[in-house]
Write a structure and sequence with these properties.
With 221 residues, the protein is an alpha/beta fold. It has a five-stranded parallel beta sheet with strand order 2-1-3-4-5, with helices on both faces. It contains nine helices and five strands, in the order αβααβαβααβαβαα. About 2% of the residues have low confidence.
Length: 221
């Protein structure tokens, strides 16, 4: 009888353990900023330190634009069956217009971005969109790409609303922070190392904002 009770107890414990939910799998899909995010001190690494209920995966490749993300979506995102995807792209779509003459026109940006969202949502994935933060930290709108960056950020806000996606508005929050913390109107050194890529403060800020965005998403398990 005693052995039977022990067996029943063991079965009950194993059943409870099997019922324990797996962590929510999140893929951050983007460019070099996200590629650096998985390194020590990067925003994804910082998030993972406190995000115990999440499995965070970085899928960033330097130089990527929205078209590049679309082409590798199947292999780098869909095949991994994530619960949530954070799309963080747009800097190179704007920046490369000037530096390489290979940027992305607004209509194509909308087209590829929309196609990604619809494909992910059809697979049951919750999608969060992040606006591109900065290409230069000057606060008087004298950064060369400010106009385009504002325009593309608004496109992303509109897509988030249209497709009922989460939104992490990095563009808005970086501008707000620089207005308060960049009195000398420096082009870098406040939240970035080189006008684009994140320094320690920038990684901390992005980590906090991304975590807020993740906590607002309801995942069906």
């Amino acid at each position: 009888m005693k052995n039977l009770r022990l067996i029943l107890l063991a079965v009950t414990i194993l059943g409870l353990l099997s019922m324990k939910q797996k962590p929510i799998k999140v893929i951050f899909f983007g460019d070099s900023i996200t590629q650096a995010g998985v390194k020590p001190g990067g925003y994804i690494s910082l998030m993972q330190q406190s995000a115990k209920n999440f499995e965070l995966i970085g899928a960033g490749i330097g130089g990527n634009k929205v078209y590049d993300l679309y082409l590798r979506m199947e292999e780098d995102v869909l095949s991994k069956k994530p619960d949530v995807v954070v799309i963080y792209v747009g800097v190179n779509d704007v920046w490369h217009k000037q530096t390489h003459q290979t940027g992305t026109d607004p209509d194509k940006f909308i087209g590829f971005y929309s196609a990604m969202i619809k494909k992910m949502q059809s697979a049951g994935i919750k999608v969060i969109l992040a606006t591109p933060a900065v290409i230069g930290e000057k606060t008087d709108f004298s950064n060369a790409q400010d106009g385009d960056l504002n325009s593309y950020s608004q496109i992303i806000r509109n897509l988030a609303k249209q497709y009922n996606c989460g939104l992490v508005d990095l563009r808005k929050e970086f501008l707000k922070y620089n207005l308060a913390n960049n009195p000398e109107n420096k082009q870098s050194g406040i939240l970035t190392t080189d006008r684009v890529h994140l320094n320690e403060a920038g990684n901390k800020m992005v980590a906090d904002l991304m975590m807020e965005g993740l906590n607002e998403v309801k995942v069906d398990r």
